[in-house]
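Database export, one record per block. Field names are fixed; values are copied verbatim from the stored entry.
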Amino acid sequence: MSLDFPLQRVLRTTEVHIKKLNILGIRTVRDLLEFFPRATESTEITANFQNITMGAKNTVSGILCDVRQEKTARGETITKAALILDGAVTLEVVWFQTPYILKNLKDESQVFLVGKVDRTYGKVQILNPEVHLNRNVHVGKLRAIYPESPPLTSKWFREKIAGLLLLAKDFVEILPSEILEAENFISKKEAVKQVHAPDNMEMWQKARDRLAFEEIFVIQTRVMREKFLREQDAQNPYLVKFDAEQVKQDLKKIPFQLTTAQKKCLLIILKDFERDRPAHRLMQGDVGSGKTIVSFLSALPILRSGAQVTFLAPTEILAKQHFRSALKFFNPEFSVELLTGSVTLSNKKKIKGKLKNGDIQILIGTHAILTADTEFKNLGFAVIDEQHRFGVEQRSRLQKNHTHLLAMTATPIPRTLALTIYGDQDLCRIDELPPGRKKIITRVISDTKTITKMNLFIDDQIGKDHQIFWVCPLVDESDKIEAKNVKEEFDRIANEVFPKRKVEFLHGRMKGKDKDAIMEKFKNKEFDILVSTSVIEVGVDIPDATVMVIENSERFGLAQLHQFRGRIGRNEFQSYCFLMVGKKDDAQKERLKALERSNDGLYLSEIDLKLRGMGELYGTRQSGLPDLKCADLTDLDLLQSTRDWAINILKQDLTLKKFPALKEKVESSEVYF
């Protein structure tokens, strides 16, 4: 048997369990052994009453007797028994559901019970405990606690993994020997064994530290190698010298003043153009911070040098918005064209012909720009809006001729992510909003009285000719998740709450052209309230929208809620965001209060990363983000150490031929951003 054996050929389990494993991406022995526990708990056994910790989980051994069923005052059936400890001390045992193992258990059997021991009405009880007939992987030592996904429980994982741990010896060591020695790490095979079945807490922590280091080190090595390889191949055919006087003249042409942060980013990008290698920069700024105008100003010196520029947007409606802005900004000095999926075949052919011979200087569009038959005469600068909406290969097509690349994102990037996932890109931030923008007033809403007031306020806002975004987490009703859905809420809002107002709905399952049409109507003020899923997170600018209502806001990350909120407040009017909580007593309310206190996206993303993890930064697990099993991306010391080691190893051998196991792992790992 090898680590790459399919689990269905190895495990004795049900099809339901195998199907759930596949959903989690666990298909081979290797995958299962690399499904690491999130915590451990002690199951050290005691048979002595004096050693029991009240109010906590204990593992106790004794003689189980007098197993019986009783009815509660509510008429529910429970199972009770007596557990006799050393010294004839008796505990009352209570199960709310009868464990299967009790059905064939003889009276007065020796057992091990794992459960919470507490005093109830003067009796010492052990509540709803696990039952074991002997010492096994579940009792007697530290045991692993895994991320559970029914029917896959920690008990199931412990039993199945225990039978496969002998194969841990087959894991190949990918960390160079100098790292193992300098950091005093245990080997990979020992780490896998100790993380699942630790000898003690010290060994479990050693295993976690070593595995966490490897996770981040592989990412850092891949990212830094990308950067070094690009720089090694450095040539800048579109070198443009920075001209301070020309920049001053360009700034005079726009009808407003740039913020200090915008000027700083513009200067950094223009300086990139005169370096000996192509620019590869990521510009981060909240929705409405003015990234687009900075990219337009950055494009001017490239255009004046005779090269072409392209702007790539994730949606057609956003591409059209950029196109309209570009026509105002660049005409008549430079020709601007739009290329999207809805452009007719004959027009596409004309546009691509003009693009190839250089008659089109600025091309704005969607994925349609990335087709094989779209050829530029001399593309000098590519700007990608919301870069995570495009694949790495798609973006690389725009850089094949050493084109300068500027990626833009409204997603707040914590400094820990900047050290890892975005480590191969230079980063600049626009960390202030244009003057005159008012802070969006945000309130967490959780009771009926406040909801009534909110609805009256919204009706008043519509009466003042303002518009409303109303966000729901689901499209259709779900039996499994108690959350508001778009179709149900649309009917309720249109027919019950605001019957005199015009209401429309939008969700991600709609065709692109239908979504664009609805957003265009909303922009043209053909209706008052748009009930939508999270598809409005990145989209068209609606200047008259002053209210954002988010149902079940506890289901979203703070960073994503902040981006939703950024869809309003795009004018001189005061704007408002209402975060509705599904349950009055929801513990998430305190987390959401951070949005009442702050409009700083970076601060909120740092909180999100700490509380919910990297995969939740965007509200859902987003493709492209690495699935970290041990590492903590808030651990700056770990991130810096792995980065330093990655640079050290790559300086020794950029090809990684001296480190074949590491090379294979790095080249087979996912490309993130």
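Remark 1: The longest helix spans residues 201-232.
Remark 2: The chain has a mean pLDDT of 88.
End of record.
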